[in-house]
Amino acid sequence: MSLIYQCKELVGGSRPGLYIGGKKDAKNLEKLRQWNITHILNMTPEKDVNVKAGVPNYFEKKVDIVPAFQYKRIAVYDSPTGASGILDAAEEIISFISKGLLHGSVLVHCQQGVSRSTTAAAIYLIKRASMTAKEALALITRRRPEACPIPAFVELLESFEKQCCPESAVKRELLGPAPPPKRRQLIGPQPPTSTIDPNAKATKDE
After folding, report:
1. pLDDT tens string for the chain (206 positions)?
2. Domain span at residue 174?
3. Number of domains in the chain
4. Catalytic residue (one of 7, 110, 148, 165)
5. Which residue ranges are recorded for the region named Disordered (predicted)?
6. CATH number of the CATH domain containing 105
7. Which of 80, 53, 78, 50 minimizes the C-alpha distance to 199?
8. 110 an active-site residue?
C-alpha cells in the first residue's frame, strides 16, 4: 500500500491520505486500520463475473467490523476496452474519493495496484489537485515505482485532462505528453470475448 496524496486538513487528529494498493492490501484488516482507511474503491469486476480478474470487497458484509468500511466498485478490465469504462465513471471516482477524504483515508485498489488503481488515482489528482496527466503519473510512480498503467489508460488520462482542465492544456504543451508506460508482459484475464476488440492485444491484469 502506497501513500500517494495527503490532505492538509486534520480529520480525527490525523491527515487523511489517498493510497494505492492491490488485492493483498484490500484484505489486510490490520494494515487498513493502521492507515485509518475508511473508504475503499475497488477497480475490478465481481469475482462471479471473472474469477481471475475480480477482487472481493472482503469486509463489506462483516457485521463485526466496526466502524464498517465504505465500499464502491468500478468494474474495469485491465485492457484497452476498459478505458471507456473508467472515463464514464470518472465523476463517480472523484466523488467517492473526495467524500472519503472528509472522513479518513481512501484505498484505491485493483489486483496488484499497478494499472487500474493508478489510473483512478490519477483522475482524482487531475481534477482535484489541478495536475496534468504527466504530473499525476510522475507523482504516483515516484511514490509507487511499480505503478504502470497500460497505454490506453495513459491516453485516457490525457483526454480527461483536456476535458476537465482546459487551462492545463498550455501546461501540458510545455511539459510534453505523459511518458510512455513501461512494457509489461501481455498476458492475463480479459473481459468476455464478445466485448473485446479482436484487434486489441491482451494485457496482464493488475
Report:
1. 999 999 988 888 889 999 999 999 999 999 999 999 999 999 999 987 776 778 999 999 888 888 899 999 999 999 999 999 999 999 999 999 999 999 999 999 999 999 999 999 999 999 999 999 999 999 999 999 999 999 999 999 999 999 886 665 555 555 555 565 555 544 344 555 444 444 444 444 44
2. 2-195
3. 1
4. 110
5. 173-206
6. 3.90.190.10
7. 80
8. yes
